[in-house]
């Protein structure tokens, strides 16, 4: 699925199942919550924290998909074409960082 297709699918889902988009501030809060859930799994799976009983059944892929879903919701409701935005962002990063990382001794 392309990014454009994902934006259309999420929009259709919202109108058919979600009634309407939550407002932008609510979705920003939800995005923050979802990113926190990703951080919780990462800190336990790859960091030094141990899993709690309440962490059982949590899957990183599912939590990342939650983040992506809410991010797409925010893009849709604010009129951001994520395909265009990502392409422009990659161009910016390429122009700015094309040699920076190659010259970073910490990465060698």
Report on this structure.
The protein is an all-alpha fold and 108 residues long. The longest helix is centred in the first third of the chain and has 22 residues, at 24-45. The chain has helices spanning 3-18, 24-45, 60-78, 82-97. The mean pLDDT is 95. The chain contains 4 helices and no strands.
Brief description of this entry?
With 108 residues, the chain is mainly α. The chain contains 4 helices and no strands. Helices cover 68% and strands 0% of the residues.
Identify the quaternary structure here: single chain
Shape annotation: flat
Q: Count the helices. How many?
A: 4
Query: SS-based structural class?
Result: mainly alpha
- Radius of gyration (CA) equals 18 Å
**What share of the residues does DSSP label as strand, in percent?**
under 5%
Low-pLDDT residue spans = none
Mean model confidence by pLDDT: 95
Q: How much helical structure, as a percent, in the residues? A: 55-70%
Distance between the termini: 35 Å
User: Main beta sheet, described?
Assistant: none
Topology:
Elements: H1 3-18, H2 24-45, H3 60-78, H4 82-97
Structure keywords:
0% strand; flat; 68% helix; mainly alpha; 108 residues
């Amino acid at each position: 699925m392309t990014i454009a297709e994902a934006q259309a699918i999420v929009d259709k889902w919202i109108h058919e199942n979600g009634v309407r988009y939550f407002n932008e501030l609510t979705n920003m809060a939800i995005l923050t919550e979802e990113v926190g859930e990703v951080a919780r799994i990462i800190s336990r799976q790859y960091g030094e924290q141990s899993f709690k009983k309440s962490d059982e059944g949590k899957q990183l892929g599912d939590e990342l998909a939650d983040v992506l879903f809410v991010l797409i919701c925010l893009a849709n409701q604010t009129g951001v074409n994520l395909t265009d935005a990502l392409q422009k962002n990659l161009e910016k990063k390429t122009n700015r960082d094309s040699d920076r990382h190659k010259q970073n001794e910490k990465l060698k």
